[in-house]
Amino acid sequence: MYEEQFLDDEKTGNGPILAAQFTNRGETYTAYRYTYADGSIGYYNEEGISMRKAFLRAPLDFSRISSGFNLKRLHPVFKTTRPHRGIDYAASQGTPVYAAGDGRVVEAGYTKANGNYVFINHGSSYTTKYLHLHKRAVRKGQKVKQQQTIGWVGSTGYATGPHLHYEFLVNGVHRNPRTVLKSLPKAKSIDDGNKDRFLAQITGFQMQLASYNNQRSLAKATQANASSTL
Questions:
Q1: Domain extents for the chain?
Q2: Could you say which of 49, 125, 166, 204 is the most buried, measured as most Cβ atoms within 10 Å of its Cβ?
């Protein structure tokens, strides 16, 4: 369920998704859009539980993984065995790189090895690092939201081609970004202070979804009866 935008009775485009429902193997999942007082947006089920993970599975749209997490990798530039404590995502130069989760930029700069880089702290336990960027879009100390553009893919520093080197640290220890997500929590759910406001916002969405589901069920029943009569 989404908004449609009109100007003088002429449709000009589509607005945000207000609610979504998905049924898999008999189990139905529903998400509702909630707008906080500060304008930030989240999607939650009817109990106020977040419908997204705290971190993106990958912080960009990539073509392939050119090098995985490997503590005994042969370095492509120096031809020596060095730990590769992250994942290299190959992508075209200029591809947007997103913040994997909400947080604050703790480092943003340039070094000979890393090229243009951005480090983001996500609370007390988690840090993500983004290396070899063509350009940075954020500065040190800046707050960022999940999926906010923080830079663009490049090949600065010790890189043989355009890619993003991405690292994920838990309590200062490097973890494989492709496997660590399974053990991480979901994003924050609606707190008690926002619960009444949340319920008031989604009530109309719930009624519209229920009406649509009733119409769909009726249409299916009518179709089934017509088929059996034939």
A1: 2-53+188-229, 64-178
A2: 166
